[in-house]
Amino acid sequence: METCESQARPRLYTRAFGCQMSAADVAEMSGALVERGYTLTSDLSEADAVLVGTCTVREHAEHRALSYIGRLRRWKRERPSGALIVAGCAAERLGPDIKRRFPHVDLVTGSKSVGEFPSLIDKVMPDHRLPRGGQVPEGRRSICASVTVMRGCDRSCSYCIVPSVRGREVYRPADEILAEVRRKAEAGAKEVTLLGQTVNSYRSSVSFADLLALVDSVAGIERIRFMSPHPLHLDGPMAHAMAECRKVAPALHLPAQSGSDRILGLMRRGYDRAAFLEKVSMVRRAVPGLTVTTDFLVGFPSETDEDFQSTLSLFEDMGAVSAYCFKYSPRASTPSAFLPDDVPRRVKEDRLARLNAFVAGRTAAYLDSLAGREVQVLTEEPGVGRAADGFKVRLVPPVPPVPPGRLVQAQVVGRTRNMLFGNLLRRNA
Ligand code: 5AD
Ligand code: SF4
Predict the structure, then answer these.
(1) pTM (2 decimals)?
(2) What does the alpha-carbon distance between residue 101 and residue 103 come to, in Å, rounded to a whole number?
(3) Which residues line ligand 1 (CB under 6 A)?
(4) What is the pLDDT of residues 207-218, one digit of tens each?
């Protein structure tokens, strides 16, 4: 539904590569542009400005972002007055190299400068300063909102470029976070994901456990998630808060990276397999019905097949239902980039495929185990939502579809590879 006013406004097209932090940064920056009069479009061909959020955590992610920027040459040729803004972690790492490589880029702003973005655009894009008053975008149809609670990372995992591109940890004050959650709830959000590179290292006047309880009390919010916690900061009070806060989903995404103590040591993760498993058990004991997911990185320097077997067995032992699995790539100036990248590409690929197949098997077994069970679904689109464990659920019968933003109960009647079909039982609200 477009008004004449929105037709007159310049249009902004956004694209974020990489993790949810990248998407949240793009949403925050596009908010600054919307406040300056821009309106969002999902059609690149009609955009007056394009904002690309880049990622550098893995070589592959960075290549994808850079090749997309290359492809925007055509858009810029067709619209020379348009503004192409490149932001995010690859922009932080490569800085002026981006403009040298891609002269059609107008503005490069790194991930450390998200806070300064509004003043930066006022300075370098004065023509784009328009009457204020646009609406700040609220993400996926505004039902599911993300709120950044901390930025940066104080750890130094040997393979990871994040500390150097995002800087040291900075925590937002709790009242600012709560104000944002309330604002998003008033705008229609029902689910909020608290975001941070090591989200549970959060501390300000309150701890992360306290923050969960504060967000739990915000009216209108029905479900709370957080991403990604670090095992070292997972303590008793946090597990207790997960158990006590009604709205916190009984779901834990806890990156393990490897199951081999030797590799975990080389990765400088700060825990061994036993300590990791103990953290998972602690949360399981506190939170009935907890589902656990994780991240793994295969092919780290010197990883043997035996180390890799330990990763497979850790996935099994932690009882995880899904995992994001990645192939190691050396990142510039990280400690592990000085180790020989000695696991051949074929071996890395083979391990990744074996791990993914193993994970897919567990996911299938888990989804099968839900057959006939009742799950709570929060709809994000008409007739489609997510269960508390994060898996997508399509409601049947499809007509009339349940509108977005409703909490309903459904009985699981079938599945695809990673989605459930749920028979609508009743509406909770
Ligand atoms: N190579 C491959 N994967 C990496 N990750 C982080 N750094 C690297 C790297 N150099 C993965 C980790 C992390 C996820 C966000 O990206 O598994 O949890
Ligand atoms: Fe990177 Fe480790 Fe920090 Fe995660 S905890 S962002 S893997 S350095």
Answers:
(1) 0.93
(2) 6
(3) 19, 57-58, 159-160, 255, 257, 295, 297, 326, 328-329, 331
(4) 999 999 999 999
